[in-house]
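Hi there,

I know you've been waiting on this one. I reran it after we fixed the sequence typo, so this is the corrected version. Both the input and the resulting structure follow.
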Amino acid sequence: MTRRQFHAEDVPTSSDCASPRTSRPPVQELGPGSASIAASILDVQCLAGNRAVSSLYAAREADNQAAWLLEAAENGFEATPGGVDSLDLRPKAKAIASELRQTYPAIVFTSGKRSEVEGQARAMAGNVVSNRAWIAETYSDKSLSGQLQDWVDKNPTATTKNAIAVGLAGVMATWSEEQKGKLSAHFTGEAFDIQPQTEDADAIKSRAASLATAAGGKFLEKEGGLVRWHLQVRE
């Protein structure tokens, strides 16, 4: 008896992984034991696929965590729960940050007051790498932010965070303290950022928004289409 050679295409696809083995499409009989071989291969495929997806998800979460902690370190803030004093905030913002930390001790603050244009430029540049129109879509003062967006638009070859940061810092270096404070409340110590959380996320966002609104400020979950937990309140 002639037996056809077993080929990979004879194995059910990974789309069958979601179905119990009893409900999967029948495997064509190629010879003694071929059906059980194919089913076993499918099980291995399913297991490997599930593990791959889990690994990719874990890697993405680790990259996000690392990025936030790196931002905190670059801006000179504690990359650990707490760190309110290191933020150098004005009274209203500090009071809100302190209450949030007391209620949710695991909160990590990634930025507070940015006294130097270099710190602000680095923070903005990281977002511009992901979205070249981020500045125009984020800041309400279109005159000042327009100068920064104009630099980005005129320098399309500047694609790294460092290159963009140098260019943006050069623009802001010509501004007065009043102009810098008008662009961003970070310059005046009236704003801080929180690393987006997974545990108690809805509760933290709700409380932050409530505290900010009560103090005449605002809490943002996104800036320029990117997930950024930002709270600001002017004195």
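Quick highlight: The radius of gyration is 26 Å.

Best,
R. S.
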